[in-house]
């Protein structure tokens, strides 16, 4: 990296080199059968350089020839992409406890053993098919730039995910856990999952209309995704945000508080600096329903005349390779604050409604506008505070700025779920369409 | 390259092993609104090693050749672990040993066109959109991906295949006050750059649709009869049916495997679906999959009856069905999984106008906006649509997501038009992206589809 930085510096006004090394193992069981063991040993380097107000970008997975990589970055300068910022000098970032060296001693046999233990624990509790996935990842990131920034971090991640499928269907109840090192899954976690699963064993059809809808943590990303879009410096600059000029305004119910905290190293993947070498900080996005902050990377902070907030990440959605993409504003450490109601009391508060246990099609609505329209997969129908059964053929739709302003209650616990940590949240008067 | 791969394979003591090396050349040009935000060429490469030993199977991807011995040790350990843990040994179906090399037939090789000319072309289309009133911004990109794959197996197969994919595509966003709408635009294929030229009218039309959406009415949620166009019908065929014809999806799912048994009656007699990676000039075209198996036309549904599955060597053995060459990886980061190539519904006899007349009252829904399945349930978006009254197309509607059950929807396809059309860009995300995933149908008349509304 040092040689590359030195060589690139000779040909430009500013240079940034970022390297990522990632070793991963993943294990997949389906219906008690060990289906796959996959490993990856991936590394790569990206180079950004600034010259005469323009920025160039190049990457490689194998740095065999520094001059070739520099030439690719120089070639991309010719396109004339404006830089508008300089690489920052960052030091004195907090030391985070993001890496547990114990992860190195976790071999795949141990994870296979844990999956078999879970099968043993669950076998008398449920009739549905049980699928389990588990794995480890160790990621090292280092960033150096011509302003003197020299930062590195290591993180470790162990995950386990459990899905119980309903017979006669490919849909089921799913929940995941993430830690920095191996940890046996608690009995209570598995018991809760089995209890939830059993509530939906019977299929049920009902009519649609406006009713209470309880989003489980696993479905909350549907709503949060639209907020992420609206508060990004990129969306603001591109005039794609309905929340321009909304700082200080109440946009959701006062029960909603959302923060992005990369420094929280009790969770895996904590970060002290972003992928551009800007120090990370806790960001209060929504405070009791009031919009408090937008978030930026270097580029969009410069464009919007704002301070970079340490949110420039190579945020790979779908299966993009992080090495190959440029940093953009991203919220990778989100959580929605827990409320004060036990989960089953939230269910008890529903006279008539739907529990959305999983969302289908969260990515296909009008995200910038805040609209969503999802299939429930699965969803439970609730009447008089009791789950009647698993609803067949239903969709839940709305706009987050209307729906998230009608919060009845929030669960008193948060859970790791896709894109963050969320509680279950009960909303009032949400549109439900069904086949009946 | 084959010599390097051979030297690695000789270090592996196993019943079977294969190794794939890929060099991936990417050219990318991105406009956000009027601004050019990215441009460049980059080359990366890596290896994927798979081992089958004593009934245990494992794979590893690695990028640094200096770590190949680590990779070999790890994959052998994992295969050993699996061999001890599985009740039923993993078996690969036998496939003929092949020694072959393929480069695609291209109508204008993108490597013969300078990046400056590609920038000019992309800018021209972007400017057409940005000059339209009420367009707020765009995200329009030129993407070129050239994969040079070398595959070698201990069975003796040696295949080199090059795949070239080009596209100009993206999102057009319109805005009126606080109302924001968007549509997608796409031109592309796997047969060269020529397909991207002379597309001005297409980009202008899509910009017009984005603007028209600002005055469209939100669609009414509920259960409706609809006509879906080729893009939306293609996504249904891919998402709802196609994924369940992939044997690795249903292999260990007791109920889905029972429902997807060969001979099961799944749809109306008029519905026939085939996957065919051998159709030249279509996006999903390839000669060999990433297990070294020759790609084959594979009928899946004939007159509503299931007649085939898409297979890997592993699932073909476990299902005791023929191989058809559908095990494909996104790139050197992944072991291959079962994917569709070009999946399509066979055309029917009716014209589009006849379908409108048969519909009477309902909606005409157009162009896919992403889709997802879970088990037999699917949900996907439509970019826009129109109210249909008495067989006549009326006002535009927006905010359209449709949902349903695979089996009931296959049974509810009541008419199929004669205007089959294939997609030009793909993006299936079954764990790995497949940008060459191609699909198509004619216009379809479907009864009782759930629409989410807003």
Describe the protein in words.
The complex is a heterodimer of chains A (436) and B (454). Chain A is α+β, with helices and mostly antiparallel strands and 436 residues long. Chain A has three domains: 194 residues, PmbA/TldD fold (2-Layer Sandwich); 119 residues, no CATH class; 80 residues, no CATH class. Chain A contains nine helices and 24 strands. The N and C termini of chain A lie far apart (63 Å). Chain B is of the alpha+beta class and 454 residues long. Chain B contains ten helices and 25 strands. In chain B, strands 1, 2, 3, 4, 5, 6 and 7 form a seven-stranded mixed sheet that branches. In chain B, β17 and β18 form a beta hairpin. In chain B, α3 runs parallel beside α4. The mean pLDDT of chain B is 94. Classes of the chains: A alpha+beta (436), B alpha+beta (454). At the A-B interface, β2, β3, α2, α3 and β17 of A face β1, β2, β3, α2 and α3 of B. β2 of chain A pairs parallel with β3 of chain B, so a sheet runs across the interface.
List keywords for this structure.
heterodimer, A: 436 residues, alpha+beta, PmbA/TldD fold, 3 domains, ten-stranded mixed β-sheet, six-stranded antiparallel β-sheet, 9 helices, 18% helix, 37% strand, globular, B: 454 residues, seven-stranded mixed β-sheet, six-stranded mixed β-sheet, 10 helices
Q: For the report, how would you describe the main beta sheet of chain B?
A: 7 strands, mixed
Strand content of chain A: 35-45%
- CATH class of the largest domain in chain A reads Alpha Beta
Work out the largest interface and the residue count of each chain: A-B, 86 and 96 residues
Mean pLDDT of chain A: 94
Number of helices of chain A: 9
- How many beta-strand elements of chain A? 24
Overall pLDDT level of chain B: 94
Shape of chain B: globular
Briefly note the CATH topology name of the largest domain in chain A: PmbA/TldD fold
Instruction: Give helix % range of chain B.
Output: 10-25%
From the alpha-carbon coordinates, what is the Rg of chain A to the nearest angstrom?
A: 23 Å
* Distance N to C terminus of chain B: 55 Å
The tally of domains of chain A stands at: 3
CATH superfamily of the largest domain in chain A: PmbA/TldD superfamily
Name the shape of chain A in a single word.
globular
Helix content of chain A: 10-25%
* Computed Rg of chain B: 23 Å
Provide the low-confidence segments of chain B as ranges: none
